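haha ok so turns out i had the wrong file open the whole time. this is the CORRECT one, sorry everyone. sequence first:
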Amino acid sequence: MAMNGPTRWLMGAVLGGATTLATMIICDRLAAASDEPAAADPLSGEGAGLIQAKRIYEDRCADCHGLQGRGDGPSATDLDPRPADLSLPALVAKTDEVIYRQITEGKRPMPSYRAKLSEDQRWLLVRYVRTLTAKTRSK
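then structure:
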């Protein structure tokens, strides 16, 4: 089908308009997406990552270390040596890597969590343990 000048112009305008409209829709969606708050980095120790870290701590650590990290959990009395008090300021002197290694390798009587928790989960625990010390310092 041969198109004359006006028909060709009209088709170009319609197709060009469709492309422009699609571009406008995409730009609007991108702009709306950039207005949404960014998801918290799970390893940042903030937001959802910290909530997840607290759950892991309560499930895996609080029985011995206690909810406040003071080494006074329900199972602590049966352990020798007693679980570390994670709320003490001395913990601040330890690097994140040292705390991570202790969680990963274990330290008698604490078991290794290498096979029980993912690497990310262990780093989340490091961030959460840091909050226990921060709570003690702020009192």
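The radius of gyration is 28 Å.
again sry for the mixup
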